[in-house]
Amino acid sequence: MKPTSIVIYEDNDILRESLSSLIGLTDGYEVLGAFPNGMQAEGQIQGYKPDVILMDIDMPGINGIEAVKKIRTFDKQVHIIMLTVFDDNTHVFDALCAGANGYLLKKHVSDKLIGAIQEVLQGGAPMTPAIARMIITSIQEQAPTPTPDYLLTKREKEILLSLSNGNSYKMIAADLYISVDTVRTHLRRIYDKLHVHSQIEAVSKAIKQKLV
Fold it and tell me: How far is CA 77 from CA 4, 24, 158, in A?
């Protein structure tokens, strides 16, 4: 099986090397490139075509948010996880609105990085409930759109509502007394019905169109 390919953008040399080593020592993952800034991100991502990008928010030259915006102009599918020192700030919110799939605090990298990568690959969006609420509030302030019938089941609506509250797959499974695999199965059906590809897109569409 082809390993999950990753490109890293991190200006701290020690952390960048640590990330590369951690991923390199994990079966099923490989680092294609690790860079101290995002100045050449457009050409690098088009050349490497990675599955996942780890993107530092605060970098010299061009910050991670601007780099994400550039990447999203030509690649809508690659999974992008932001790396940040600070939790629940506007920079994280801006990065997610720019097209990032989630974020991870640098202090949690050693024990949560691989889990966060697995989560985005499965369609999830690693983030704290506080950031999820910021996104939801922003969406709610936008003008509502007409509500088509997506034929969502009661269970699918329950899972969408739980997602919109910032709950993880494990929390949803526990609340609804189902397995995490069952949650993922429902999510795949939800994505198909809503014609979306990620958790953030699904929650955004559900709130805009008053599905939850």
Answer: 14, 23, 27
State the Cα–Cα distance between residues 20 and 6, nearest whole angstrom. Answer: 9
SS3 100: coil
Residue 13's pLDDT is 95
- Same domain for 16 and 104, yes or no, is yes
Considering the domain architecture, whether residues 53 and 154 belong to the same structural domain is answered as no
- Give per-10-residue mean pLDDT for the chain (212 aa): 95 95 94 96 96 95 93 94 82 88 90 92 83 75 66 93 88 93 93 87 84 82
Q: What is the largest CA-CA distance in the chain?
A: 51
Residue 117 tokens, joined: 């990568």
Whole-model pTM: value is 0.70
Q: What is the CATH number of the domain that holds 187?
A: 1.10.10.10
Cα–Cα distance for residue pair 65/82, rounded to 1 Å: 9
Structural domain containing residue 166? 144-208
Helix locations, the chain, DSSP H: 13-24, 41-48, 64-72, 90-98, 109-121, 129-140, 154-164, 169-176, 180-194, 199-208
> 190: closest CA among 204, 179, 175, 170?
204
Q: Is 51 helix (H, G, I), strand (E, B) or coil?
A: coil
